[in-house]
Amino acid sequence: MSGPAAAPAVVVLVGAGPRATGLLERVAANAPELWPSDRPLEFHLVDPHPPGAGRVWRRAQSPLLRMNSMAEDVTLFTDESSVIEGPVRPGPSLAAWAAATAGAEPYAPHEPAPDASVRAELAGLAPDAFPTRRAQSAYLDWAYRHTLAALPPHISVHTHATTATAVHGPADGTQFVHLAGGTAPLAADLVFLTQGHLGSEPAVEHQELARFAARHGRRYVPPAFSADVADELDAIAPGEHVVLRGLGLAFVDLVVMLTEGRGGRYREESDGSLTYLPSGREPVVHAGSRRGVPYHSKTGYRLLGPRPDLPRYFGPAQADRLLAEGRPLDLRRDLWPLMAKEIGYGHYHELFHAHPERTAGGWEEFRAAYDTLHWYAPAMAELVRTAVQDPADRLDFEALDRPLRGRVFADAESFQEHMRGYVEADRARRADPGYSADLGAFLALLSVYGQLPQYLPDAAASGGAPRGLDHASVREHLDGWWQGFFSFLASGPPGFRLRQLHALSRAGVVRFLGADLRVEADEETGAFRASSPTVPGRTVIATALVEAYLPSPSLSRSEDRLLRDLYAAGGAIEESGRLAVAPDGHVLDPALGGPHPRRIALGHHTGGRAVAAFARPGTNAPAFRQNDAVARDLLRSLAARPAPVRPPAPARPTAVPEQPRGAAPPAGAGRRAEPARTAEPVKPYRHVPR
After folding, report:
1. CB-hemisphere CA count at 13 Å for 308?
2. N or C: which end of the chain has fewer CB within 10 A?
């Protein structure tokens, strides 16, 4: 006669987007080795948005919004490049999945039937296409269900379509996660905070602008996720002059919603140009930023030469050497010369191999000299000048970073002509394989980005002596200059978006303001005044201002009540606005003087922000390495503990008093939790070697 069944170990994941799916996928892969087959393990996913897609990639957003990655460059699965301790379990990229499931129902049975446009897009999705975000939502939904089907029968997953509002419990005991709606808290052995990208309530300067707009009957939209501000955009009247401050991806999304989203359309002309046909419902958009130019478009081709051997100058060996010095590092002084040299290597590797007719001498000779030189050494500049004849083929970071620096235009129209030429030249270059060296630089940028987490102060700590980047350099250089520069070069829109922007400029719907944009709230006129030194003496008067960029991370102002209250109660440390974590993801708890053994956080809202939830295939993605290590630690630590005895749930801890913030509550707050549910099993994907 068998004894009573063992009580299940319980893990709560707060946030059910792609980061949670990636962690569960690694649990499924490692469980046969590390989890006893006679002991149940329960996962509870808490998120008001659909599991798999989460908030950012949820299906309920405009069908006009697209990804800025090609379909073949998006995967949630490990592959032969993954250097991990656990087993590699290949799966399809978004492109491969769409091709393998063409015509099939893309969403889970519990989701409403998708409209015909999603099915049609997936059926005809080319590998080099930039999918809609709703197509990505379908892929993430499938990847989530595929992952559940791969779990052994004694590991279960339950979802709670609500918001987690608090977590508490002793460091050496059960954790309790409270849910909105008054349902009983979830008792857990471990809690994972996987919320991902989070909004922040308006900062002081944004609150002041909102009050100004309210006083004068104007419209102001603070930094927010594009899919969340549709109602605010609808309030902007046709023909109204609106300033969009920011020229990155959020700007592109907002312009799409204010133009095509209002019935405008594009017409291909016989000469190959594109014409925008207004609906008459568009506002007049004035756009500017610090740089004054849009993000560079994504390349529309593949490498023509072999992949560069990366990392070469900015990898683990260089990190070991710099961190061994035991001094605070400055990104611009200590890291950037190595980072720049690495990016340059990717650029020139492709130029020499794919376009040798535009170089002098051989690659081996160039590389031997390049290896020995500092990036800023005069000899390096001379080497490049001698080997690369055309200045357009040389990598000039300073010119790339601030293309309008020192440029002054006599009037607004001459500047509009210049910007139309700039936008078209950028689009054309990134569609021309003759400039595939740009893609070599892009791949090196990705490599550099993946190496940076090891320099973070907490990640570099050893024996209680902090090493790595100085906190000021993290704030000013890593999260400031570098993140902006990286996004400008590597995270721009698809090329067709710049083509559309060119057409919108010609139609007068979008008008460029210039660099170092200044916007003032004029109490006398009750309007916003925008100006730029790029066109001296020009001032634009607008009745609406939209911040065209994402909110800055902040624990104290986070929309996420759990994180905000945890920080206010002294249970977390803020690091450049993010949740401070140890190298293995455990939350740093000031009361404990170190990592909390039962709370782990992964994703963009943490100090390990450089680790994205999904990645390009074949890149040994940091996210997959992190997910594998964390999943194995999770399984080992829980398997080593005796079956839990659950104490009764204590009362919810006293909440930190709410302060008036003038912002809407988080999406989904106050909704009653739906019954726990387990997704229907799906047929596992069969990997076909590429």
Report:
1. 31
2. N
